[in-house]
Amino acid sequence: MSNSLRLSGAVLAAAFLLGTAACGTSSPSPAASPATGTSAPGEKPSGSGGLVLQVRDGGGLVPVSPAANIPRFSLYEDGTLVTSPATKRSGLPGLRVAHLSAAEVRTVVGAAHDAGLPHSGPLGPAPPADGPVRSYTLDGKLTTTVAPALRDCTRQRELCALDKRLDSLAEPSGTYRYSVMAAVFNESGKGRSPGAATWPLGRLSTAGEPTSAGRCLLLRGTDLKRVREAARTATSSAWTDGTATYRMALRPLLPGEDSCADVVATD
Question: Global pTM?
C-alpha cells in the first residue's frame, strides 16, 4: 500500500458518483450498509477508493512507536470513517466506524482546505518540544499542529471547526470489525514486571518480524481471539511472556492495510 494519500479531482468525482449511485437500483456495498451507518455483524468496512484524510495524535506520551499509534480519524473515498476514541477502557483498542454520504465527504474536504490544509511546515504556533501534537495528512502532505487542547481557537477557528465536524460525524457510529490485528512491541526489561499483562502465545523475543518500530506480529483467527481476551483486562501497554517484559501497542489493521509495513510506515 502506498504511504502517499492523494486527493485530486478524481476523488471528488468518485464522491459525486457515490452520491448519484445511491439513487439507482443497485444494492449498496457492504461498507454502506445498514442505513444506520453501522457495519453489519461480521462485516468489515471496505474503505474502498483510497484514503482521503487522516488525523493522528502524537507527541508526549505515545505507545511503542508513533507510527503504531492508531489514527484518530481515517476517512476514505467511499465515505467510510474509522475513528479511535480519545480514551479506552482496556488494553484493547475500541475502534468505531461510520459511513458518510458523498456530500459529507465533500464538506469535510472543503473544511480541511478552508483550515489551511495541507500546509508546508507547522500550521499555527510551533508545537512545544516533546509536547502533544495533532497531524493531518491531506493531498499526500503532512501538516503538524499543536494538540487541540493547546490550540487557540480564536486564531484557528477553521481548524477547530474541522475537528468538531469530524467528532460530530463520528458520533452515530458502530463497532469497527476487523480480522487482523498487529502487535508492535519492544523489550523493556527482563523478567516479569508488576502489573504487566500475560502474553498468551509463547515467547515474544522471536515472534513476528523485525521492523523500524520494533518487532511486529500479525494476529489472526484463534491467536487474535486469545490476545483480545487477554487485552480486555490489561491496564497498561506492558506485557510479559514470563521471561521479559515488553511495551506493546495493539493496532487493528485499517482498510487497505495488510502487512506490518503498512502499520509501522511513517508519514
Answer: 0.76
